[in-house]
Amino acid sequence: MDTRLALVAHDARKERMLLLARDYIGLLRECRLCSTRTTGTLLRKVLGLDVECMASGPLGGDVQLASRVISGGLDMLILLRDTQCAHPHDADINALLRICDVWNVPCATNEVTARILLFHAQVTHGMFPTPL
Ligand SMILES: O=C(CO)COP(=O)(O)O
User: Fold this and answer.
1) What is the mean pLDDT of residues 36-52?
2) Could you tell me if the CB of 37 is within 6 A of ligand 1?
3) 132 assigned to some structural domain
4) What is the pTM (predicted TM-score) of this model?
5) Interatomic CA distance for residues 80 and 107, integer angstroms
6) Which domain holds residue 108?
7) The domain spanning residue 41 has which CATH number?
8) What's residue 9's pLDDT?
9) What is the value of ipTM here, to two decimals?
């Protein structure tokens, strides 16, 4: 499977991201992974995953991921969002989520939806419905 998957977690969700990634480690090893810098570094160090790192979120990493969606280079986004505080780059986060909707890229912003998407990807080998 060659699914191109972006994994991003705000600080308050990084622990949950690691647990989620550990649960799906077999699937993730078969995907092409990219992340914002701090999330990606953690996934590399703690789980040994091969992750391409963009800039950190506050430094524009979400915008880099949005650009990748626009150029057709991303199949799925998991962005575990911290809803309890404002972020200096809220505009970038909203842009990334909007661009996923514009381009019909499956996108999860909470852990339960992320698990549903990963389960689906596992069962279908990364096949998502194509819009008509
Ligand atoms: O802020 C983020 C996404 O909006 C995450 O960035 P980091 O992975 O660099 O912490």
Assistant:
1) 98
2) yes
3) no
4) 0.96
5) 10
6) 4-124
7) 3.40.50.1380
8) 98
9) 0.99
